[in-house]
Every structure is written in C-alpha cells, then in structure tokens.
C-alpha cells in the first residue's frame, strides 16, 4: 500500500513539474521539481527491505543538482554539474560492482558508441562553451563512462536489471545532451520539456534496476 502511494506521489509530482514547464508556470516548477527526487527516494525506500546506501547517496546528490539548476547563474550551474557528476560516479561504482569478468571485445564494443556520441557533442558545442569547455568535457566523459560500463554489464549478463540500468544511462545521456545544446547552443521550449521528461524516465529506470538488484532478481 505504501509503495503504491509512493509511486502515485512520484508520478503526480513529475506530471505537475512537466505541466509547469509546458505552460511556463514558474511556481509549479519551483514547488514540484525538488520533490521529484524526494518522492523517488520515498518510493525506493518503500520498495526494498535493505537500502543500498550508495544509491541513496546518488538520489540525494541528484536532489541537490535539481535544486541548484532551478536557479540561473554560472556558479549555481557548476554546483549542479558537480552534484550530478558525483551522482554518476556513484552509478558507475554500482555498475562496476556487478561486473566480474569481461572480454576485451565487449569493452571496445561498449566504449565506441558512447565515445562517438561524446565527441560529436563536444565538437559541435566547443565554440559555444568557452570557459565551460573543461567542466563539460569532464562531465561528458563521466556520463559516457556510466553508459559504457552499463553496456558492458548488459553484454555480460543480459538480465532485466542490467537492461534497465543501460537504458537508464542512455536516456540520462540524452537528457544531459539536450540540456547542453539548450544551454550553450540553441535554447528552445521543446528542449526544456524533453530534458525533464527524459530525466525523470532515466531516474525511474535506474530505480527499477536497483530494486531488482536488492531483491536478488537477475
């Protein structure tokens, strides 16, 4: 019962935030965006018996990232970037713990697609990034690594939890790529909507993967 309530709260809060973005209602965004990760944290804690403390920490840093990015200004943007950078480091650590042995071919086949996306994005945005070039490169390398290790894990296991983590990583990368394009190259209202929808989907998919892991479900 508590899990159902938590899920409904997560869905409702997410919808209200997206509605705020679609109809350009700042009050809705400022009220409900911080509660997306808090409600997901509530949903996670009500879905498992043993909480993964590392994942819990990732949700907390994601929450702070959301709050920092609510406000304008380069300093707060960098603080948001650092918060999500730490989040992705934690995600990478979680996935690496799942990987035991793998082949060189699987590593190469996992590195190539995410590296290509990263390089295309950086070369496309480098002239617009200016002093943000290095921070964005570091962040881009980190989330690309998250995608890479998730693909390695999926190639090794081909389980539901590894698939959900992989898709979550890919959708997260899409969200962050659109965010970078929107902020540094061409800001559009459609991009703002896309960023939040893909972000929520990514976080939910990763949550589902973590629930399956706690339940010992392959």
Strand content: under 5%
Number of domains: 1
Low-confidence stretches: none
Anisotropy-based shape: globular
Largest beta-sheet characterization: none
Helix content: over 70%
Question: How would you summarize this macromolecular structure in one to three sentences?
Answer:
The protein has one domain (57-214).
Q: Any overview of this molecule?
A:
The chain is built from 8 helices and no strands. The protein is globular and about 45 Å long. The chain is 85% helix and 0% strand. The model has no long low-confidence stretch (mean pLDDT 96). It has one domain. It is mostly helical and 218 residues long. Helix 1 packs antiparallel against helix 2. It is a multi-pass membrane protein. Pfam families: YhhN (PF07947).
Give structural attributes.
8 helices; globular; 85% helix; 218 residues; mainly alpha; single chain
Task: Give a topology summary.
Elements: H1 2-22, H2 26-45, H3 53-69, H4 74-98, H5 104-129, H6 133-157, H7 160-184, H8 189-214
Helix pairs in contact: 1-2, 1-8, 2-3, 2-8, 3-4, 4-6, 5-6, 5-7, 6-7, 7-8
């Amino acid at each position: 019962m508590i899990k159902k309530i938590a899920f409904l709260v997560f869905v409702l809060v997410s919808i209200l935030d997206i509605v705020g973005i679609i109809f350009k209602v700042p009050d809705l965004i400022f009220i409900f965006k911080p509660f997306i990760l808090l409600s997901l944290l509530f949903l996670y804690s009500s879905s498992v018996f043993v909480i993964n403390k590392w994942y819990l920490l990732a949700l907390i840093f994601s929450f702070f990232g959301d709050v920092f990015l609510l406000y304008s200004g380069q300093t707060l943007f960098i603080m948001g970037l650092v918060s999500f950078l730490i989040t992705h480091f934690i995600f990478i650590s979680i996935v690496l713990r799942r990987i035991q042995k793998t082949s060189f071919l699987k590593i190469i086949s996992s590195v190539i697609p995410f590296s290509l996306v990263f390089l295309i994005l950086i070369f496309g945005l480098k002239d617009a990034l200016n002093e943000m070039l290095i921070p964005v490169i570091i962040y881009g390398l980190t989330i690309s690594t998250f995608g890479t290790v998730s693909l390695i894990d999926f190639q090794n296991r081909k389980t539901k939890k590894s698939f959900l983590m992989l898709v979550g990583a890919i959708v997260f990368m899409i969200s962050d790529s659109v965010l970078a394009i929107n902020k540094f190259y061409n800001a559009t209202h459609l991009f703002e909507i896309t960023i939040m929808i893909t972000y929520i989907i990514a976080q939910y998919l990763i949550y589902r993967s973590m629930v399956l892991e706690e339940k010992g479900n392959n």
